[in-house]
Amino acid sequence: MSESSNPSPLWPQARTYLVKEIHGWLDIHSTDALTLPLPDEDWLLEITADGKLVCMAGYDLDDMKSMLSDGTPEDLGTDELAKQAKFYLQQTVSKHRPKLLRQGFTERIEMNESHVAAHYERPVDFGKLTDLHQQIKTCLTLFPASR
Question: Which of 11, 19, 74, 96 lies 20 to 30 Å from 38 when distance is taken between CA atoms?
Answer without folding.
Answer: 11
